[in-house]
Design brief:
The protein has 75 residues and is mainly beta. The protein has one helix at 30-38, and strands at 4-11, 17-22, 27-29, 42-43, 45-49, 55-59. It is globular, with a radius of gyration of 12 Å.
Length: 75
């Protein structure tokens, strides 16, 4: 099975990513996207844990900022 790729993000007023859009047009809440990454269904990102214990998505390091989640187009 091919892995999905995040192509767009939706942020709240604080700049936190709340939803992601995949290359196939599907939209997922961030918690669902984190579960999909853990299940190896989305490529290019990994799950990090903040100091407060909250999980978040971050781009895999690859030497470019262009595909970082914060730099992706909004929807």
């Amino acid at each position: 099975m091919d892995k999905h790729k995040i192509v767009k993000v939706k942020k709240n007023g604080d700049g936190d990513i709340t939803d992601v859009q995949l290359e196939n047009g599907e939209v997922h809440r961030i918690k669902e996207a984190i579960a999909m990454v853990k299940n190896d269904q989305i490529s290019g990102v990994n799950v990090g844990t903040a100091k407060n214990g909250r999980e978040f998505l971050r781009s895999n390091p690859n030497g470019t900022d262009e595909d970082n989640l914060d730099n992706l187009p909004s929807f």
